[in-house]
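As agreed, record minuted below.
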Amino acid sequence: MASDLMDIVRGFTPAHADLARSAGIPALLADEDYVEALARVVYYWAYPGVDTFGRTSMWELMDGKAGLQLGILPGAPKNFTGGLADYLSPAQRWVVSPNNDTIYGAGFADLTEDAAVIQTPTDVAAGHYWTIQIVDVLTNVVHQLGSASGTPGGKFLLVGPGWSGNVPKEFRGLLRVPTNVAGVFPRSYAAHSEESQRQARVVLDQIGMYPLAENRPGQRSFGYEDAAKTAIFPPGITAEMLAADPDAGRPQWVKPESFWSDLGRMLDFNPRMSDADIPMADQARALVALHRSDAAYRALLDHAALRADVALHQAATYTQVGQDAGNGWQRQPGAGRWRSDWFGRALAAVIYIYVNDFHEAVYLIRGTDSDGSLLNGREHYTMTFARNDLPPVDRSRGGFWSLTMYDKDAFMLADSPSGRVNIGTVDLDAGDLEIHDGTLTLYLSHDEPDDPAARANWLPAPDGQFCLIIRAYVPTSAILDNTYQFPDVIRSMQ
């Protein structure tokens, strides 16, 4: 393999670049152009993998510990999951575009030497939504277990690409991942009532991952609620620092200035990829080898990474990402099941990394109103669902929908005046929304509406630019094929 890589690397330099009268220069420039173009494509392809591999630093921070990273994020040692006891705090500035509908869990598996146990719940009320999303290092959803797919309670064996052996008799099945690193993300639906929150925690406490070496007969309790009482901080970060500045120490998971070194470490740890990613992985390894071995090309590759990073972040906004889904909403049709859509996967990694398989949850986003103007809290907007035409999700399998408000950086409002950061099924089930003759109108603005009925259906906006996301969990075919159209966002003439 190393010999093959060096043959490719040597091929990036013309055989006779030093011909008399500079006759070799055009070939040299053509080769450099090719390398630079390839480097920018590889940057997009690899961005989610470098991001994910960077997050495995959690293993060292949480080694031998149970608690919450920074007191707000689920964290766990290698091959374990951690979990929250409530929604992710709207005040946090570490996770972009989180939901406010489920209680989260998270963990990362190292499958180089051993397997892990994935446990699913056996005690779940009918219609309660839960899922375990399992992704490879490049954020491709490899497995999506849960209420939507009718996954039975019990244990599954999670293995990497090199595993061979027999599945223990008590296990329900085998879950293979094409890379050595896997992300494992449990979620449990929680409405606003105390009883619903309790039920969500009960279900989440039955969901998670632990090393196969620790397997014992029967189901285990993960103890997330007790662990959530302990805050664990990275070196140099304190609770006081975060209180004063929520962005304090927020990681930059992908750094263009060290991209090729970081990519090399990710590839070394994950020598195998999914079939759709193998061709680009080979190209990436060649460029990493070139970066390591050639000083002249090293500068070119570093510059290409910087340019690609700027371009990616300019494109990755709620205003620009996705295809038209009707009435001004945008959607990435193959979200989660990316295959060879490397560009779409990179965009998602920036604005809402680890999206579920689109069969599990459809995400619609926007940053503009019906006139194509940027959304801004100083304006007043409405969204009106026609009579008896609320989003068609499958409630029997736990389906729900919500509209979440984010600031221009895709974070929730830390100081929402009503305490509401999203609106949807949870509010309808609680009877908190005003519906007139089967019609539901939502009001979006920074200023509180004067009318009591509008105030009941108000989703507060920041004092400035904002963006929106609709989540439809367990969508029916009408949502999947765009037959159902979500209402437009209309600016009111005050």
Notes: Residues 323-491 form a domain with the Jelly Rolls fold (CATH 2.60.120.600).
